[in-house]
Amino acid sequence: MRFNNETGRDSFVSTPSIHFTPVSSPVVQSSFLSSSQVFFTAAPSVATPTVPMVGAVSLVSLPAGLELGGWQLKCLLLALLETTLSGTIASTWLHGVSEYGTGETEQEAVADLVDSLGEYLQSLEERETRLADVALEELNHLRTLIEPAR
To answer: Which of 7, 124, 127, 129 has CB 3.0 to 4.6 Å from 139, enough for a Cys bridge?
Structure first.
């Protein structure tokens, strides 16, 4: 914190900038990237202590045909992996609904995610005649995404 001579009050000064270079992958085309580098300038919180970020976040693509936990993906599925000290969370987004799986490792979290999608599909199919339009859209989307493994 620095003292501001003009106002007579304390003020926070920005910390060094954070730089990262986005990378393209088979999932994220280079044309989708806004620039070769992105710059962030962070400042300390005024009232809340800052919590050190521990872990990593990555986007992975799960290929069509992948079989996990009795389920098979019918098409490509993008999942966000968040790794922390307590384990990994794999999440994905459907039409307005987020599904996730957890595990001690990335593989366990992805398997739990696929199992969660399969259980959600089964649950919707059991109630299909009573579903609202939004839930029917979810069901149709899940039917194009996942099926029981053969």
So the answer is: 124
Distances (CA, A) of 127 to 73, 114, 115, 122, 123: 22, 20, 19, 9, 7
Q: Which of 78, 72, 74 is nearest to 60 (CA)?
A: 78
Q: Three-class SS of residue 141?
A: helix
CA distance 68 to 149: 8
pLDDT band, very low/low/confident/very high, at 56 (cuts 50, 70, 90): confident
Question: Where in the chain are the domains?
Answer: 1-51, 54-150
Read off the pTM. Answer: 0.64
The pLDDT value recorded for residue 16 is: 45
Phi, psi of 125 (to 5 degrees): -65, -35
CB neighbour list of residue 24: distance below 8 Å, 6 or more residues apart? 30, 32, 33
Q: Contact 143/135 with Cβ under 8 angstroms?
A: no
User: Looking at residue 49, what DSSP letter applies?
Assistant: P
127's tokens: 């109630």
Structure token pair of residue 139? 């069901």
Q: What is the DSSP letter of 14?
A: P
